[in-house]
Amino acid sequence: MNSDETDLQNSMLETMGFFAAGIVHDLNNFLTILIPLMESLKKDPSLSKSHCEEISIVLSGCHSLKEVGKRLLNFSNKTQIKTTLFTLNQTVEETIGLFSVAKIKLTPNLLPDLPPISGCSANISIALMNICINAVQSVGKNSDITLSTGIYRPDGKKPDQVDNLYVYLKVKDNGVGMSKEDVKRAFDPFFTTKKEGNGIGLTMARKVVEEHGGSIEIESTLGKGTQITIFLPTTRNTIDS
Ligand SMILES: Nc1ncnc2c1ncn2[C@@H]1O[C@H](COP(=O)(O)OP(=O)(O)O)[C@@H](O)[C@H]1O
Ligand SMILES: [Mg+2]
What we know:
By secondary structure, this protein is an alpha+beta fold. Helices cover 47% and strands 17% of the residues.
């Protein structure tokens, strides 16, 4: 990307931040009503265990939405982000749980005992949600969406040389796929091929991943499907750099 393109993208992101403030205000109004309502519903003694679990998942989704709001507000600024140690598998399992409430099946293929990453799990989970929503929107009847995790060593170093240890997460779908031209533009702010799209999802996902010192890649074949891979460093914390 040349410097003119970078300037253009930055000013687009700033404009987006401005409009986002209004949307976040409305979003928070709804959440202020929804969260206490669901918390009180959860206490209803006549509720079955499975319904109670579903309400917990929806509640956790609402809390993630609050984070989405913060994220949107700070879109064009460097943010003070809450940093914790967590594993990608935890984030994937939470996301799968959230989609299952909406009766959407995402298949996990997780490598156990992944080394933890340091960062903002809510933001990584928002990035993952955006990627999964795209996958869900791209598939038809015989949908197959698989979320795989694993370990990646960029230069083949031994496992104890943890400085170079990355974890990866692949979201693979058998949906409509993308043309080569669209793959090149997929991360551009506001790029969308959808009637009701906004073109923000992948821009946001890439920003979050890069803030964690990671990278994101797309492989896609028109008519066959798409695979989006996120790589995240397991030890370095580059968020406040
Ligand atoms: N899994 C996918 N399969 C097919 N196309 C995709 C996929 N993910 C992203 N895209 C393409 O990238 C574009 C940008 O995605 P995104 O930034 O999330 O915006 P939006 O979903 O609002 O269009 C989409 O409009 C679509 O053309
Ligand atoms: Mg999207």
